[in-house]
Amino acid sequence: MRSKLFVPGSRPELFAKALAGPADAISIDLEDAVVEERKGEARGLVRDWLRSGPQAGGKLVIVRVNSMDTPHFEADLAAVVQPGLDVLNLPKPQSADEVRAASEAIARAERANGVAQPVRLLLNIETPRALRDAAAIAAGDPRVMGLQVGLGDLFEPLGIARRESAAVQQVLFAVRLAAGEAGVEAYDGAFADVRDTEGYVAEAQLARRLGFAGKSCIHPSQVALANEAFRPGDEEIAHALRVTQAADAAGASGVGAFLVDGRMIDRPFLLRARSIVATARRLGLLPAA
After folding, report:
1. Does residue 289 lie in a domain region?
2. pLDDT (0 to 100) of residue 251
3. Is residue 12 helix, strand or coil?
4. How far apart are the two ends of the chain, measured CA to CA in Å?
5. Does 38 lie in the same domain as 120?
6. Which residue in 168, 101, 190, 86 sits closest to 137, CA to CA?
7. Does residue 288 lie within any of the structural domains?
């Protein structure tokens, strides 16, 4: 999921248009993008759209619900946990216990709505406590498929500048390690200044260098930027192919470590190369194996 395009839950005329676009996922938002007075209306619109059986065309369908400490959470789940939903994006989880409670609530909604395919969880890390306990939160339940950074919610209440590069890098690094400990993916969050394409690209490239799988988009113009930033480069793919081919030859000879392009390759580097090759095949940059 290189790119995830946010769409307000109160704008159903945009749902199909977003699905038809180039983003890897559509993320319908019932939280920040919907004012309090329209939250009930929005959840009904999203429920009806999901029940209509949207043609996702291989894209992930995600819904960001309101947080567990609001009066909307249970109603959101009852409405949107439908057969058309792939991932539920949970804002502001504070502990592994909360993640397990959310999973149990999803299970109840699945049974009530006849959902056979389990809905996965994408968890936002956007409070100091969640950042501190991110690894435990990520490992809180088997439904969890990833952690997502929420820098605005994390920084603004603390008076930390959103564009402070040292702070951004530290948070991204901490979240990536936490996700890695739990064996799930990490995803970068939103970048609010739609006009600043250079800033968006720089942050996306930083996230990719730190091992993130993708980044949120709050405007369609950011989708192509995210897709390009999280696409393996041609030389990167070529090197990964050379590594995997050399590994096959080394394995046949009983060699554990070997050289490729003058670099020593052992298991961690081989795992990375295989991941790059798999991503390239999934994106159609290499023929299927």
Report:
1. no
2. 78
3. helix
4. 21
5. yes
6. 101
7. no
Query: CA-CA distance, 193 to 133, in Å (whole number)?
Result: 29
Shared-domain flag, residues 189 and 265: no
129 within a domain of the structure (yes/no): yes
Mean pLDDT of 43-53: 95
Structure tokens at 50: 């999901």
The residue from 198, 214, 229 where one domain ends is 229
- pTM comes to 0.93
Of 218, 216, 219, 261, which is closest to residue 236 (Cα–Cα)? Answer: 261
Give how far Cα 19 sits from Cα of 8, 10, 84, 150, 256, Å: 13, 16, 13, 23, 45
The predicted pLDDT at position 14 comes to 95
Range of the domain at 274: 234-282
**In terms of DSSP bridges, do strands 87-90 and 185-188 run parallel, antiparallel, or are they unpaired?**
unpaired
Residue 287 inside a domain? The answer is: no
Decide if pLDDT at 249 tops 90.
no
Averaged over 54-82, what is the pLDDT? 94
Write out the two tokens for 239.
């090197």
Beta carbons of 227 and 204 less than 8 angstroms apart:
no
Residue 168: helix, strand or coil by DSSP? helix
Residues 37 and 166 in one domain: yes
Same domain, 89 and 27: yes
Calculate mean pLDDT across residues 192-208: 97
> 179 — phi, psi (to 5°)?
-65, -40
